[in-house]
Amino acid sequence: MTGRNENEKGSITLLGNQNTKYSQDYSPEVLETFPNKHPDRDYFVKFNCPEFTSLCPITGQPDFATIYISYVPNVKMVESKSLKLYLFSFRNHGDFHEDCVNIIMNDLIKLMEPKYIEVWGKFLPRGGISIDPYCNYGMAGTKWEQVAWERLSKHDMFPEDVNNR
Asked: Beta-carbon neighbour count of residue 70 at 10 Å?
């Protein structure tokens, strides 16, 4: 990892590891962080996972989605390979769409205590209907708490084009 000394790398063990194990079960413990080199500046980091899969908890049928994660980092940031492995671990996890996005958000809040975060799942239709749950969080006592309420209260008033189905 060019440009970062050992202290700045945090506890990253997966990036560059050629012996990566892909968990077949929900695995929040795979998530890793590294220090934010710009904690005095507010900025968004956005991840798009167009190949997210989970299982319906009732039928066991697969569900497919694009998961969007946007956050404003505080002191720690999530490492992208660990996030990929974490999202992959939902492959055999049975939960409703709404639960999946809330679990992802809660795990990331616990991991890195971001100033702000939102998770949006755009699931492919099954049974003739698609479900697109959205959740967000703003750190209590900061301007981001109000931003979270504003974004949630106005969410999807002007829906964008959905191009994953």
From this structure: 17
Which residue is listed with tokens 């996030």?
A: 83
Q: Is 95 marked active-site?
A: no
- Max alpha carbon distance in the chain (Å)? 52
- State the Rg of the chain over Cα: 17
Active-site residue identified among 25, 40, 56, 156: 56
For strand 134-138 and strand 62-72, is the pairing parallel, antiparallel, or unpaired?
A: unpaired
Residue 63 annotated in active site: yes
- Among 83, 136, 72, 82, which residue's Cα sits nearest to residue 105? 136
118 beta partners = 70, 136
Task: Report mean pLDDT in 10-residue bins for the chain, 165 residues.
Answer: 55 64 86 97 97 94 96 98 96 95 98 98 91 96 97 77 59
Catalytic residue selected from 40, 42, 49, 63: 63
Task: Give the CA angle between residues 149, 153, 156 to the nearest 5°.
Answer: 130
